[in-house]
């Protein structure tokens, strides 16, 4: 555990980087950045102690509540499919009719 409160204003990456890692194991975050050897040496100055792993609560797996299966009305499903077929056919028919009947005789 490290207390870097005194280092917040001096951190080259800004205080947001340190604040985003509070309350969790930030070891991977620290290693991913690729800190210099001088940065690693500074860690000794901020070291507070080790975490007692027996006090860490275990995570329980989330199980979503069971929901009843919703069955859609078969009639409305049929009507929707029929309209999906008929509406484009009607538009095509109207377009053909307008073109055919408004054509000027040659």
From TrEMBL:
It holds the Pfam family Cyt-b5. One of its GO terms (molecular function) is metal ion binding. InterPro entries: Cyt_B5-like_heme/steroid-bd, Cyt_B5-like_heme/steroid_sf, Cyt_B5_heme-BS, Cytochrome_b5. Residues 1-52 form the Cytochrome b5 heme-binding domain. The keyword Acetylation does not apply. The chain crosses the membrane at residues 78-101. SUPFAM superfamilies: Cytochrome b5-like heme/steroid binding domain. Keywords: Heme, Iron, Membrane, Metal-binding, Transmembrane, Transmembrane helix. GO terms for cellular component: membrane. The keyword Transmembrane helix applies. SMART domains: Cyt-b5. Belongs to the cytochrome b5 family. This is Cytochrome b5 heme-binding domain-containing protein. It comes from Gossypium lobatum. The lineage of its organism: Eukaryota, Viridiplantae, Streptophyta, Embryophyta, Tracheophyta.
């Amino acid at each position: 555990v490290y207390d870097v409160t005194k280092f917040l204003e001096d951190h080259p990456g800004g205080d947001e980087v340190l604040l985003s890692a509070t309350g969790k194991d930030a070891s991977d975050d620290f290693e991913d950045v690729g800190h210099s050897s001088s940065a690693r040496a500074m860690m000794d100055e901020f070291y507070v102690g080790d975490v007692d792993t027996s006090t860490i609560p275990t995570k329980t797996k989330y199980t979503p509540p069971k929901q009843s299966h919703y069955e859609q009305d078969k009639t409305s499903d049929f009507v929707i499919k029929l309209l999906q077929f008929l509406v484009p056919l009607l538009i095509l028919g109207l377009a053909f009719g307008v073109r055919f009947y408004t054509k000027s005789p040659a």
